[in-house]
Amino acid sequence: xxxxxxxxxxxxxxxxxxxxxxxxxxxxxxxxxxxxxxxxxxxxxxxxxxxxxxxxxxxxxxxxxxxxxxxxxxxxxxxxxxxxxxxxxxxxxxxxxxxxxxxxxxxxxxxxxxxxxxxxxxxxxxxxxxxxxxxxxxxxxxxxxxxxxxxxxxxxxxxxxxxxxxxxxxxxxxxxxxxxxxxxxxxxxxxxxxxxxxxxxxxxxxxxxxxxxxxxxxxxxxxxxxxxxxxxxxxxxxxxxxxxxxxxxxxxxxxxxxxxxxxxxxxxxxxxxxxxxxxxxxxxxxxxxxxxxxxxxxxxxxxxxxxxxxxxxxxxxxxxxxxxxxxxxxxxxxxxxxxxxxxxxxxxxxxxxxxxxxxxxxxxxxxxxxxxxxxxxxxxxxxxxxxxxxxxxxxxxxxxxxxxxxxxxxxxxxxxxxxxxxxxxxxxxxxxxxxxxxxxxxxxxxxxxxxxxxxx
Amino acid sequence: xxxxxxxxxxxxxxxxxxxxxxxxxxxxxxxxxxxxxxxxxxxxxxxxxxxxxxxxxxxxxxxxxxxxxxxxxxxxxxxxxxxxxxxxxxxxxxxxxxxxxxxxxxxxxxxxxxxxxxxxxxxxxxxxxxxxxxxxxxxxxxxxxxxxxxxxxxxxxxxxxxxxxxxxxxxxxxxxxxxxxxxxxxxxxxxxxxxxxxxxxxxxxxxxxxxxxxxxxxxxxxxxxxxxxxxxxxxxxxxxxxxxxxxxxxxxxxxxxxxxxxxxxxxxxxxxxxxxxxxxxxxxxxxxxxxxxxxxxxxxxxxxxxxxxxxxxxxxxxxxxxxxxxxxxxxxxxx
Lengths: 456, 335
Ligand SMILES: Cc1ncc(C[n+]2csc(CCOP(=O)(O)OP(=O)(O)O)c2C)c(N)n1
Ligand SMILES: [Mg+2]
Description:
CATH superfamily of chain B: Thiamin diphosphate (ThDP)-binding fold, Pyr/PP domains
Mean pLDDT of chain A: 91
CATH architecture of chain B: 3-Layer(aba) Sandwich
Number of domains of chain B: 1
Strand content of chain A: 15-25%
Structural class of chain B: alpha/beta
Shape of chain B: globular
Number of strands of chain A: 22
Mean pLDDT of chain B: 94
Oligomer: heterodimer
Strand content of chain B: 5-15%
Low-confidence stretches of chain A: 87-112
Bound molecules: thiamine diphosphate, magnesium ion
């Protein structure tokens, strides 16, 4: 029986991809393990191997086709002595066939990041500035490249950052531009290279230390907190430690408990560290540049799922944003929704949905978690008298808990309802798809919490 | 099950594999290979998610080492663990169902590819943090010595993991306290995209124990007989109370680091060359034919048997339901 070769999922986060090249033609025989095509995923160009033996009877999706959904039939393989039944699509072999058992989804545009109806302009960006749309990944890369061009003491170090071009391709091209003096592949030895980075900072350099993910920074957390975070104080102000520790934080997709942890509140707890967790590409760029220039140790928390999302970034010679300032990204008068990083997505969606029901939500993106811009939060809450904080991390001692404490202490009289939290569930991250979904904060939970504080 | 240290060491076999065992090794290696190939396919179909690290190419290491230990000895490794679990005698259906995230999986679908365990088979995981299993394996060996149960712990780790500091902290304690642990370094030449010479000042990893007085040996990890031979010697050493020992298994992974690795750090020719010249399964098959232990008909029958076994695992893994929502909250604490 002829078998369909399906568009494979080639990474944990891949939903669709581009068939860049077919390496075999119709009529060619293939063995299991032969590379038959090159496929561009969300992260890289991958080789696709045949899993069965047979003759490649038809190519159903031609090279160059973009946005081919995972599991779409892309070719047909026949076994020994088999022929492909004639398709009735006019003899053409290029169009994906119609199948009655499983309809083929038509290739369509990649889903853009959930965009609010209106995102307020950043007051720190001069009015009239032109914008270009780039991914968060590109924004981070531009920030590092610009700072490395500006200052020779800035260098990047981490696992797979140089020759492999970054496990998540953030540092793509940097080795080529800056050479191996400044873009350095380390062994897998997090405590070692984090501590080495601290020493290099004491020695007058400005290290950017990339953790492949922040889950692995737990190996190095002693150096981050005890050495980077406290030395200025312990030395009576003599020893600064200008260093950036950056990498993806929080849950990716289906990578289970040891690889899906959110460290926002862990680092935000520590005096001596600054902690940044951007959502939008403009903030990723402007704040990473600020972090690299900052004379203090900065924890820069990125998010793997957001790397591929596109947002407008100002076209400025030197786009640097102030650390420690939250941003009102949507104005409203009935309830304040506070969030940061990936959960900004569902928060903005919730604001849209609530607007449809007559609730005007004001949405605040914290951007920096330490120092926390409580002023912006309280000012908004004084106007709306209701507040919900949304975060991916665990509820106990979280950022949302801190916000609730601060508004209660400092503006109790303005509250018309108890502050609420929407957080990740208080369990390690499960692997199973259905449980993982339940473990993460969800859109309907945000909407429900917002309504609850509005008594609706 | 627990025997005294004396009984165990008196009975501990040493030396080469018996001819009748070799066909069994072939079968186990083939099971791992076919299982992994199917897992790769299910990943491509979206039935397995997240990270999935395939063991294809390294089969002789776990199959040979497993034959060198006895029931009750422990095994612990990192995330490239499917082969270790199948070698330990864990049910392929339960392993595959864990990969698909179903209730019939070894961790009820909550652990996934990297995190499976079996108390019954003395398999202690299944760990995702590079190097973290090394002190844990050393601790299992500590419990063996403490309880004087005569057991040995096989602690596996990769060439990349060999650079983690906690490996050396473990070496020191294991040697200081003469713990019954065999460190099996699976040197497959790469840690993700980093070839060993780019990450390691001493690339002969069996020498890494020198400053801790731990003996080490380099072993051809593509030849199951050689692995077994070295394994028996090392296990006897540990069981006799002489302390830890390192076996550096020279091996190779054919597939990418995990499913999303474009593998641009090595050439296809390099991989193809090893597949053609050093494949552990082909290699054993030739030996079995040359030594007249098995015939083509035997191999055909085995192929069919394994194919069916893997098909049953896949079927189970697709039919087993997703874990119920209550599972989200279970197992955080033990009552
Ligand atoms: C502490 C830590 N750092 C980084 C990673 C990411 N990572 C996973 S596997 C791996 C490479 C390990 O290579 P090796 O030890 O040689 O084992 P192999 O994958 O070759 O079996 C890396 C860097 C991790 N899981 N844990
Ligand atoms: Mg390796």
